[in-house]
Amino acid sequence: xxxxxxxxxxxxxxxxxxxxxxxxxxxxxxxxxxxxxxxxxxxxxxxxxxxxxxxxxxxxxxxxxxxxxxxxxxxxxxxxxxxxxxxxxxxxxxxxxxxxxxxxxxxxxxxxxxxxxxxxxxxxxxxxxxxxxxxxxxxxxxxxxxxxxxxxxxxxxxxxxxxxxxxxxxxxxxxxxxxxxxxxxxxxxxxxxxxxxxxxxxxxxxxxxxxxxxxxxxxxxxxxxxxxxxxxxxxxxxxxxxxxxxxxxxxxxxxxxxxxxxxxxxxxxxxxxxxxxxxxxxxxxxxxxxxxxxxxxxxxxxxxxxxxxxxxxxxxxxxxxxxxxxxxxxxxxxxxxxxxxxxxxxxxxxxxxxxxxxxxxxxxxxxxxxxxxxxxxxxxxxxxxxxxxxxxxxxxxxxxxxxxxxxxxxxxxxxxxxxxxxxxxxxxxxxxxxxxxxxxxxxxxxxxxxxxxxxxxxxxxxxxxxxxxxxxxxxxxxxxxxxxxxxxxxxxxxxxxxxxxxxxxxxxxxxxxxxxxxxxxxxxxxxxxxxxxxxxxxxxxxxxxxxxxxxxxxxxxxxxxxxxxxxxxxxxxxxxxxxxxxxxxxxx
Length: 588
Hints:
Largest sheet: 6 strands, antiparallel
CATH topology of the largest domain: Aminopeptidase
CATH superfamily of the largest domain: Zn-dependent exopeptidases
Radius of gyration: 28 Å
Distance between the termini: 60 Å
Structural class: alpha+beta
Strand content: 15-25%
CATH class of the largest domain: Alpha Beta
């Protein structure tokens, strides 16, 4: 049987044979039948999408007077129920449904859509062959006016090249445009993580590098990339090919690249569009072959492979020392999602406490924490919502109350170095000491999600660094070793060892089906900011422990990641994945 014509409400009646054929057609749920997608909503009703532009509700109503109450649940005009009385099956147009049923149909068909205080995040499910989805139609459904597509395209949070959407493309319909029925936050749904290797491999960065060519013009050297269908400057270019992470800096880079490329309208870019990326924005791994940045990057990879073969092994993590640094705390809460009562410092601390407990109860390793929460101690909590307190202190001598974030960051590496020196003097093998700072991302672009790891890029560290300010003289750890001094060989070693552990950590996360960052590299050795500033975070730059990483566990601005961060079982799973990585790294 072919697809039903859907320009009007459809009624079907006839023999028992017709009924059987009809039901086989109607209840092929959660799959495409030709060009129609169907999803069960409840017994007797399913949502359907045809050609990416027609939504309707398919029903199998009861007979007789019971049909009145049945259709009253769905129809905006309940008096229309007699139109469908005693029919075997009907398809009701989207606009004939109650507002709350329309919302149910939308969320039923578009299973990846999310609604929060910023608006309705829509993910297209139809390919061009199935019938491309249009912004006009989407705005008709969600805002009541198709003409609102112009405002959606103009919103800088959207990275749109055209008014039609490619399968998998995501777009935000801002909250101030939504119909009242569409504004409420969508109920949390159980979103299963992909199986390792299913859809959580990062972008093929080596293949992407091959797509770049290089040249120079009056404005200087550039890397040339040609856009693929549906790609935008924000994610496909800046996020992928640079190490810029802050939204404002990404937007500035987008504007710069747009002007440099002579692109008049980023909403009307065609496949094959020439995009010129100033070479000083490009990550080292994407620099031209033979250039100094590319050579340094490839040498760092080679050093990591060399040291991997020499990695020290130990049974049960015997002799291993782990220094855990829960990021932020005190007056500095880091990122947050107030509506969900999720605060970065509380999440970081709980994950670190869970790691500490797993190590101490299941291995022979020794654990140090750089921070202590005076109210909760080191016991993990099973909270799904947190209260932000300010009683976390850095465990220097004397302790520091985290009044100033910059001072706190410096005191953490001072403390880590003091622990390192003490352990080495006591006979610990420096190769068995590891430092990890836990953080939670709050990336502006809520579409991005998953874990990533920062390591100390050797070329972005100084041979000696000593923070200015008399306050450091108050702390024993700082005045005993006032600065951090390293040789070029030590910095290269640190980057290589840290990369090896970061790789083991990301593989361990994947095995436990914890989402990893997809838009670019999982492992990054530097961060770029406005004005060409490239840096390594202070806790990686100046900590003298050879193996050191900064872990971003997930993205607070992404709804799926928030659900996981709020789940104590997920936080425990993350902690156990970290210990799995330790065991792999040290051959346990």
